[in-house]
Structure formats: C-alpha cells, structure tokens
C-alpha cells in the first residue's frame, strides 16, 4: 500500500524491536518450560494423528474483464461488478467524508497523543548524548472536538490572510496537528503540498517554489532548516508552527524569517474560533494534495491527488479489512507526507476508528528515546490495526531467529516446533492445529512476543516495498496477525491491489482493489507476454478512480506514463512487471525500467549510477544491480585490461593471467576503493555505491549479445547470463 520513496526508518528502533522480541521469548520459556515439556511429550503426538484435510480450495479473488479490442489482460475485483468510488453516498470529497464521519461518530474518541512529562539527556559510554522521554498516557479528542478544531483552523487561515487560490504546505513529522491542519485546509478548498520532513534543502526549495506555496505549516524542528534557506524561498508569506512542550523559538530563527508572518498553531485556531468563516467546500475533481516524493533521479516530482482519488482508495481498502469499526485503534507513526500513511488514516477516518500518534523512536518499551520504566507507544495504546514497512519486519524476524540460534538447546527446539505447528495451521494442513494446540502454543511461545506491539493486533497493513515470503509467515505466526500486503504508488493514490486477510498465500499483492482495474500489457523486449503460460505476464498498468491527474506542471513526464484509452479510461503505466495467478491475484516479478526500489524504500537509478562510476579509470564496462529485498546494490565490472595490469605491476601483484588477476582480493579492493572515490565526487548516496563487486575478465560485445550495436547494456541478458554471480554477491 503505497510507494515508499524515502523511508524514515530508525536503526535504534529496529534494534530495540529485535532485543525486545528475544527477551520476551526466553522469559516466556522460563515460565512455561514444564508445560512445554508436557505438550511435547503428550499433546503434540496426539495432534499429529489428527485427520489430514489437505489444502483449502482456492477462492476466486479476481475476474478477467474485456475491454473491446484491448490487447492487454485486464482484471477486476471479483466481489464487485462495478468500480466503487465512495465509502458511502455523499462522501465524494475528503472534506465531505471528514464532516460526515465526525458527525456520525461525534462522541467516539478519534485523535490521541501522549503528553510529555519530562525529558533528560543520558550520556553513553562513548560520550554520545541521548534524549530520553518520560511520556504519559494517551489523551484523546473525540470526532466532534476534532471537527470543531479543524473548522477553527480553517477560519484562522483565511483571517490570517491566506488566499484560497494559493497553496499551503505541511512540512512536519507525523502528529495529530498534521491531520488537523490538513483537514482545515481542505474545508477551504486549499490544496495541500506535502513534503517529507527529511527532504534535503535543494529539493525543499524546489518543491516550495515550484508550487508557489504562500503558507507553510511545520513543526518547531523544521524552523531552523527554513531559516537557513529563507532567502531562497520566493512565495512564502506565512509560517505556522506546531508547538512543542518545553520548546521555544530561538530569536535567531525569527530574525532570519523577518519577512514572514510567524504564528503558532494554537494562535491560528484561536483566531478562527473568534472570527468564523464559512467553508468553501471542494469538488471531487479538485486537487486535494500535491504530494512530493524524494524522487528517483534529480529533483522530486509533485503528484496531483484529487479528492476523488483519496476517497476512492479509502472506500476500496475498507472492503479489505474485515469488520473495521469504531472499536478499532490504529497506531500512526509512519510519515503522513507519504501516500501510504495518508491513505491508511483516511481509511480509519471512514470507519470511525481511533488514531493514536507515536513515533519510530518511541514505539516500543525499549525504543531509543523511551526513558527506562516508561511504556512505549504501542504498549500504551494497544492498537488493533497497524501499518508497517518490510524493512522493520525483516529486521525483527532476522534478529529473533539469530537469538534463537544463539540460545540453542531446549528453547530453540521448543520455538521451532511451535513455529512449524503454527505454520501448518496457517497453511490449512491440519484441522487440529487450529484448536487447542493453537491456544497452547500462543501461551507458551508467542503471546509474549505479541506484546511488543501491545498484544491486541488483529491485522497489519504492509506496503512501500516488497515483503519477503519468510517474513510474511513469521509475522503471521509470531504476531498472530494476517498481513494485507498492498501494492500501489503515489500516482495511484496507494490504490491498486491488496491481498485479502483470509488469503494465506505469500509473495503476492492480491487482486485489484475494487476502485480500479489492473491490466497487464506485453513487454516484448523483456520477454514478458500476456500469452505466457501458465500465467499471463506483462507491464502492470492501473486504470480507475485511484489514478491521479499527473505531475504538477510537468506535462511531458505526465504524458509519458498516463494514457487515455478510447473509452475514456485513464491508465497509469507503472513500469513494474507482474503476473496474474489463476485466482486473480497479482504478483510483482520484475521492474521494466532501470529504476529499482531498495528494501528501505530508496529508489536507485541504475543508469545514473553506472554513468557516474564509468569515470573510474579501472572500469571498461559496468552493470549495477539492485535486489529490492536488500538495502544496497552490487555491480558486475569489466575492468580496463591495461590500467589494471599497470596497477598490478606497480603494486607487485603476481598473477598467472588476466582472469586470475580479476579474482584476487587485492584487485577487488583496489577497484572498490576507486568506485567509492568517484561515487563521492558524483555525490552519490551510500546506497547508490555498490557494496560488493564481481570482476569479469571477458569484455561485453555486440557479438556476445550483452550490449547493443551502440554499446548500450542489454540488462535482461546480462542478468540472465550472470544470475549465479549476482546471487552470490548477496550471500
């Protein structure tokens, strides 16, 4: 669900998750070792004799549809004969959906935040200082109270002097005021520009100037960044900041921002409450958001999301999550400037659910910024629904399994037996595994692991990058929750496909969401055809109500990837390669373009990196390769014969022949260092610099079929020929 272009994952958070899981498992083993022995000796042998029922019959989740003379392979969701575009009649815009949901659930709790009680600086053994927070319980506002505050903020914006015809930008970490400001803007038909809090200065200046933002809404931490670039911002008139407990604005910041009217969020609310302004409600075709991404190459692109796009995606995802209601609690900590989190919170709004805000640094009891003895956000909130990105889940799985191996002995055996038995239950092989045995394994092994996220999770949403099969199963078992793995991009407002919660298959992203069609079109160059057997394959294109308008003031790029068919259906060409399984579920198997998303959500342009690294004297030819399940790239390098041999002679390196020279560790290190130097000069990011290399002695020629007559790489042929070498680089 969503296209994660630039993730804000935090290594200390990941480490704390890993350690917490490990400690919980072994504490649990100590308490229930005797019970475990009884189960191993008596109960499990009986359960193994349970009648075998085999796999459950596959459910048809997608249905092929015909589009006249369409040469593609088109699917829709099997449960809906027509595309849906609203969660209920009348909720055609985000403003209407917000107002109607707030009136319906007026007394139910909605937005929750934790009050800061105290903070202190702790000095580590290496001298580094860390901030530790003592946070209180969640304090809640009802849907009715939230609506009133959003209306007040909307009126305050107009009284402040914001023109309804200009844009407002939100530049902040995720928090309840972000959501309030967003809804307030939409009530006055103000288009909101969303910007990552981690976006670099050049991209920030470009985004704000490009969209001609007149009002900038941010948190206190961003004021310093804004002050440093204030002279480069051409259209800013008003700055509104979210107050922080115990934080004041430095006078130096104010001096640099003397050309702007600076107000606090509460001041704007108060201004609006004292002088209410009638709303100027939008139409469904109006642009609600211009969402800037971190960009795959060069400067970021602003995707134009209409009100209709957002409500259609929300309506579609409500059909995926079973029994979503006001009794559910959602943990919000991912970036709201990303379409994944924005769509998820729109879904919760539609269902009348509660949203509790936290952060990656305070999520668990042992998170980096949580003071010892203070509960983390998840422990305090006890969410029932949560979104996550694969990198977090992958690291949790790998860390726990590593600790299991280190522990060894009875604890290791108990964990693996429990895991295998629960795996059998999930895959539907043994009827008995769903009953008493499930309860026993939950008590002995998995219950305490689940308490890491509060112990009440009944389902998770996963998006932003591919989720590995092993990790999906691990979360199913150890957290006891189904995962709705979604597929979507900013350009489809996060709405394309999502696996359904009763689907136990792994490695797939489910059928098309009911707000859109998904079509595969043949890509002959790559060898992916809709006529392929046993499954049709091709480039994934999405058409329907979630497909956005295009890129802000960039008609050329818009026309490259957005196409209108002869029936008026607007399609977005994703560049991803997929295949449809017989039950109508989509699996993403490749990427058409040379742009790849890594494990943490960063995009790497292989061509750009290759062009930069070719400046090394050692490189005759190079192909960079990136596996989306890893956080780094690797490379195949054909070294310059003469340059490398000259280095070897000067360094006293002995070798039999050129292939032998290419295999030596000293040679690989020398070329690795050279590539690192040119990468630094080219200002490549760390993840764009190949972490491992394979040196190939034989040149790539048109005759070999590895390059074109113009000596351009034939990437697919290279990947196929050197498949084993590439795989070894990731081992």
TrEMBL record:
Q: Which stretches make up the AMP-dependent synthetase/ligase domain?
A: 133-552
Q: Name the InterPro entries on file.
A: AMP-binding_CS (IPR020845), AMP-dep_synth/lig_dom (IPR000873), ANL_N_sf (IPR042099)
Q: Which Gene3D superfamilies match?
A: N-terminal domain of ligase-like
Which is one Gene Ontology cellular component term of this protein? endoplasmic reticulum
Under Pfam families, the record lists:
AMP-binding
Q: Where are the transmembrane segments?
A: 29-53
Keyword Methyltransferase part of the UniProt annotation: no
A molecular-function term among this protein's GO annotations: long-chain fatty acid-CoA ligase activity
- Key words of the record: Membrane, Transmembrane, Transmembrane helix
Which sequence ranges form a coiled-coil region, renumbered to this chain?
none
Q: What protein is this chain from?
A: AMP-dependent synthetase/ligase domain-containing protein
